Amino acid sequence: MMRIAVVTYFYPKAIPFVKQLIEALQHQSFQDFEVIVFNDGVEDVSQYFKLGSIPISFHDMSGSIGTIRIQSMQVLAKLDFEGYVFMDADDSMSANRVAVARELLTKYDVVVNDLTLTDATGNIEVPLIWSSRIADGFEFDSFFIHDKNIVGLGNTAIKRSVAATFLTDRPVMAPDWYIFYQLLEKRNLIAIFTTRCETWYRQHDGNIAGIRSLTKERLEQVIKVKQMHYTALEGEGYQVDDELRKVESFSQRLDKWKEMKVKIDLNPFWWEETNFIYE
């Protein structure tokens, strides 16, 4: 039987959401799992987690978001679990997520589930935002997330062997995209997308990714994220010259974006917005 753990990253701004986090863990249909908390700066962190019979362990971490997540992979690679289900501390998840992820991890190295958007208080706004674009069981590799992303440490599960991949740490604004691109590319992995379970993805001011209005400010942010992302990948030897040129070209045209035709009648993947603007 696969030993599984739910992994979350806890930090001071996540404290207001800890009640929903605990409820999501306690309400899982499959209960034979443990919880691993990587703590980023919360004093006496154990006081916030009363999980009853669910075993829990804590690991104090420090550094940037990307550094902590990369270092956490090194920790996970050495622990005695066969699979990990990641969950952002300010989100929630369907009651079957651990069960579905555990089942799919017997066949796949990386499992990615759909998102349901909620408001800051947890009320559902848009269910299963990507299921109209990609079907349950869709398989993909690093090429699919080359210019956009659907993989984050809030809607993903991995086998322990994946965590053992050597990852580089460079300055980026979207560390999950950078991490999972490396994981899929370096190991030539195939991931599976499922709509059978979901992450309830909370939309609030702390998020830098999500479904938003297509404003000039949003596009400027996407450009900055992509420039840093491709620069980091270029520094690791990946051939992303064309992508950098496209982003730079779009940036130069952005000052007249209101004259462009906007076509965005579907839910974009993360950082995909620049692909919907054309002259």
- Please state the CA-atom Rg, rounded to the nearest Å: 19 Å
Structural domain tally = 2
What is the straight-line distance between the termini?
Answer: 55 Å
Major β-sheet profile? 10 strands, mixed
- Overall number of strands: 12
Give the C-level CATH assignment of the largest domain: Alpha Beta
Query: What would you give as the CATH superfamily of the largest domain?
Result: Spore Coat Polysaccharide Biosynthesis Protein SpsA, Chain A
Tally of individual helices: 7
Mean pLDDT: 91
Helix content: 25-40%
Portion in strands: 15-25%
- Residue stretches low in confidence (pLDDT < 50, at least 5 long) are none
Specify the CATH architecture of the largest domain. Alpha-Beta Complex
Which outline best applies?
globular
CATH topology-level fold name of the largest domain: Spore Coat Polysaccharide Biosynthesis Protein SpsA, Chain A
What is the secondary structure topology, with strand pairs?
Blueprint: E1 4-10, H1 18-26, E2 33-39, E3 56-60, H2 65-78, E4 83-86, E5 92-93, H3 97-104, E6 110-118, E7 124-126, E8 138-140, E9 156-159, H4 160-163, H5 175-187, E10 191-202, H6 216-235, H7 241-253, E11 261-262, E12 277-278
Parallel strand pairs: 1-2, 1-4, 2-3, 6-10
Antiparallel strand pairs: 4-9, 5-10, 6-7, 6-9, 8-10, 11-12
Helix pairs in contact: 6-7
